[in-house]
Amino acid sequence: MFNQTMQHLGEERSVIRELFEYGNQRKQQIGADNVFDFSIGNPSVPTPDFVQAEIKRLVDTMPPEVLHGYTSAAGAPEVRRAVSDYIQSTFGVPMSANHVYMTCGAAASLTITISALCEEGDEFIVIAPFFPEYRVFVEGAGGTLIVVPSDAHFHLDFEALKAAIGKHTKAVILNSPNNPTGAVLTAEELKQLGALLDQKSLEKGEPIFLIADEPYRELTYGAEVPCPMNFYHETIVCYSFSKSLSLAGERIGYIALSPFCCRADDLFAAVAGAGRKLGYVCAPALFQRVCAASLGKVSDVEEYRKNRDLLYEALTSYGYECVPPEGAFYLFVKALEEDAVAFSERAKKHELLLVPSDSFGVKGYVRISYCVSRSVIERSLPAFLALYREYR
Ligand code: PLP
């Protein structure tokens, strides 16, 4: 009667959402202060004042029929120009506004890009651990998700990648700074990856694309985030302002095609076609303009750094094992038993909500989202210690 795949997708909540909903129920039962909810990546740092001021300025000065009306499908021309100018001046890439497409956040950037690229039989490579929605986006477009492990430090494992890339590979999806590990790929890694993709594209006889999913680009603690367009021609950047400006609910981001992409204008037409087919019409008009005025700016990363340091120092002093995150706002911690789902269930007994790593494509870890208020972390530490003592 209706599409069973869609029904299944709607019924099967993601593990993260499941835990988040459980947390909400639990907070009602025992009080919000007694639940330590580290499940979801909803930015906790307030949207910066300059963003609020820009919203007010636009509302006060722009004719409402323009401000709230449709823009061109690809975005308001002045916004697309601002994005391309920003990329050009920041990363030295000779961007064209014609290759910028405004979207409803990174999820839309990714679904549009994957739909624009995907033909029958295509494979999309992701590096584990990976953002679980990649599977939904790739399979929803008719593609096949190929999972490649990362190395022991959650960086690229070139041998594994080399073995996985073949004649069906359409693209490799990278996410740096990374959810869930906080790893930031280095320029050297991107250079090596660019060389590998060049060689594999040659063997395949057509380009293999690099999709750079970058919602955490500005959220780093000192690490430089190199621009992948400078290392590989066939690069498509999927950006979002959800995390950098704490605007996750406003749904705003962009797709930027490297000017060096082969047949970039045709590829852009495919992006526009995918956006049309998926029914996006245009990205939110007010927030296109707000973000054009806020390019390169970021909410208070120091707050996340303090959370990261507090949690990392405390957990490692108790005996937990984790790689120190260089960016984003997640800590990926080794579970204290093999089965991360069982470990997460045991953590719940201490009112700690930790996401098991299985849906990220690896076993034996939990993800802790530290985009929460400092007091949640401070109050949760005895629970982490008690949980550790239960095992060791
Ligand atoms: N990609 C990654 C790696 C993410 O972590 C998220 C959200 O958490 C998204 C994409 C989707 O972001 P948006 O809210 O901008 O759609």
Please name the defining characteristics of this protein.
seven-stranded mixed β-sheet; alpha/beta; about 400 residues; Aspartate Aminotransferase, domain 1; single chain; Aspartate Aminotransferase, domain 2
Describe the protein's architecture and organization:
This protein is of the alpha/beta class and 392 residues long. The chain folds into two domains: 137 residues, Aspartate Aminotransferase, domain 1, CATH 3.90.1150.10; 243 residues, Aspartate Aminotransferase, domain 2 (3-Layer(aba) Sandwich), CATH 3.40.640. The chain contains 14 helices and twelve strands. The strands form three sheets. A seven-stranded mixed beta sheet has the order 2-8-7-6-5-3-4, with helices on both faces. It has a three-stranded antiparallel beta sheet with strand order 9-12-11. Helix 3 crosses helix 11, helix 5 packs parallel to helix 11 and helix 6 crosses helix 10. The longest helix is centred in the middle third of the chain and has 18 residues. The radius of gyration is 21 Å and the shape is globular. The model has no long low-confidence stretch (mean pLDDT 96). The site of pyridoxal-5'-phosphate (PLP) has 13 residues, from helix 6. The site of pyridoxal-5'-phosphate has 13 residues, from helix 6.
